[in-house]
Amino acid sequence: MAGMDIYEKVLVVSPAVEIDAHSAERLRFSVDAAFENSPCVNIVFDLSKVGFMDSSGIGLLIGRYKQAEKRGGCLALAGMNNEMARLYTISGLAKIVKNFPSLNEAISALRGGAK
Questions:
Q1: Which of 7, 100, 106, 115 has the fewest C-beta atoms lying within 10 Å of its C-beta?
Q2: Each residue of 43-68: pLDDT tens digit?
Q3: What's 64's domain CATH number?
Q4: Which helix (H) or strand (E) element contains residue 63?
Q5: What is the domain range of residue 13?
Q6: Strand pairing class (2-7; 75-78)
Q7: Is the dihedral of CA 67, 61, 22, 11 positive or negative?
């Protein structure tokens, strides 16, 4: 459902499913468990393999943003398609979560302490 890797203190989540009400709940449990049991403070969602995301996905991201913030870190997104970028903007998520064109750029920024 989602690959997860750790790069220093950055948890990288790479979902390979549509993020809707059904999958968002399962993904939330997986990400929360991985984050809680890691030394990570930052989370990056690589959305390059996600073709669709609805408001449940926005809720998932906001919850993970709050988790990272509690640890003094942040949430970042990478690889969004045009439809997700539109949802990202109109939902207001763009005001609190950084978006990067590529996963490598997101990891580099967060490893360097960017918030």
A1: 115
A2: 999 999 999 999 999 999 999 999 99
A3: 3.30.750.24
A4: helix 55-70
A5: 2-111
A6: unpaired
A7: negative
